[in-house]
Design a protein that fits this description.
This protein is α/β, with parallel strands linked by helices. Helix content is 36%, strand content 25%. The protein is built from 10 helices and 13 strands. The strands form 3 sheets. It has a 5-stranded mixed beta sheet with strand order 2-1-3-10-4, sandwiched between helices.
Length: 313
């Protein structure tokens, strides 16, 4: 008899595609194992008419999935790591990271114009405050409007003429076979990605020894070192995915370099710094970078963002 396990996932096409990939990779490496998908609707999936930043709270796309793990309805879950909070419920962990996809943001326009070529007053759609603040710094003459919905919904809204351009994660487009839609890859010097962007994070119960053994076969240590630094940076800033924070770490041999930023929503203040160090201390490096940015004015920016969010709520 095969060993059967349940994988919890959101219902979006991208989430299902990512989960199917993990399922097939596990079953390929473990011929006696079968993975069944459990489709879960999260709070973030239900609220589609409000910008994510105004919904508030961390874990908008993971809480209900984590509940299924804690109840024992599921044995593992696949998340886009950028949606995954750094603080997890007791008894759960996200410590398995398959190899990273392209971490860059993708600029997609209706008429093939790049970001620099877009005329002033053009309408750009994004749901991310991180993208919003950096875009306003680069191109303050553009009109930036909220864009919600699954990836295919966002592309459809662009095609229908509601926007002149939109910004999405390159990784999601690549995973869905839609890389040809990308007009321009925004390099990390132009737009720093979200923490963990391009990575999948696999969550499971910490006491599940068998699942830990199975998942070790799809773990990519180089990716893990980079995202551990990025998530330590985010943890020190106490930020969620709906705060203007970005970071990206790169591993070269046993040398790790991480860039990070904190910005205000207007793009008036963008504090960006970089640190390098040994690859065997990713958390210390990420935390040190966060402390440097906090000391350079990042603390005041974040306090203002959180206070405005609290007053609005």
């Amino acid at each position: 008899m095969p060993e059967k396990f349940v994988l919890a996932t959101r219902k979006s096409l991208l989430a299902l595609t990512q989960s199917e990939w993990v399922k097939s990779e596990i079953e390929k490496r473990w011929p006696g194992v079968e993975i069944e998908l459990l489709k879960v609707v999260t709070r973030g999936d239900k609220i589609l008419d409000v910008p994510l930043a105004k919904v508030g709270g961390k874990g908008l796309f993971v809480k209900e999935i984590e509940d299924s793990l804690l109840r024992g309805d599921a044995d593992l879950a696949v998340h886009s790591l950028k949606d995954c909070p750094t603080e997890l419920p007791e008894g759960l962990e996200v410590s398995v990271f398959p190899v990273r996809e392209d971490p860059r943001d993708a600029f997609i326009s209706r008429d093939g114009k790049g970001l620099d070529q877009l005329p002033g007053g053009a309408k750009v759609g994004t749901s991310s405050l991180r993208r919003l603040s950096q875009l306003r710094k680069i191109r303050p003459d553009l009109v930036i409007e909220s864009l919600r919905g699954n990836l295919d919904t966002r592309l459809r809204k662009l095609d229908e003429g509601l926007y002149d351009a939109i910004i999405l994660a390159s990784a999601g487009l690549n995973r869905l076979g839609l890389g040809h839609r990308i007009t321009q890859h925004l390099d990390t010097e132009t737009m720093l990605p979200a923490i963990g962007q391009g990575c999948l994070g696999i969550e499971f119960r910490s006491d599940d020894v068998r699942m830990r053994e199975i998942l070790a076969s799809i773990h990519h240590e180089e990716t893990a070192i980079c995202v551990r630094a990025e998530r330590a940076f985010l943890l020190r800033l106490e930020g969620g995915c709906q705060v203007p924070i970005g970071a990206h770490a790169v591993l070269s041999g046993d040398h790790l370099t991480i860039q990070g930023l904190v910005a205000d929503e207007e793009g008036q203040q963008v504090i960006r710094r970089q640190r390098s160090g040994p690859s065997d201390q990713p958390e210390q490096l990420g935390t040190a970078l966060a402390d440097e940015i906090l000391g350079a004015g990042g603390r005041e920016i974040l306090e203002k963002v959180y206070n405005e969010r609290e007053n609005a709520g």
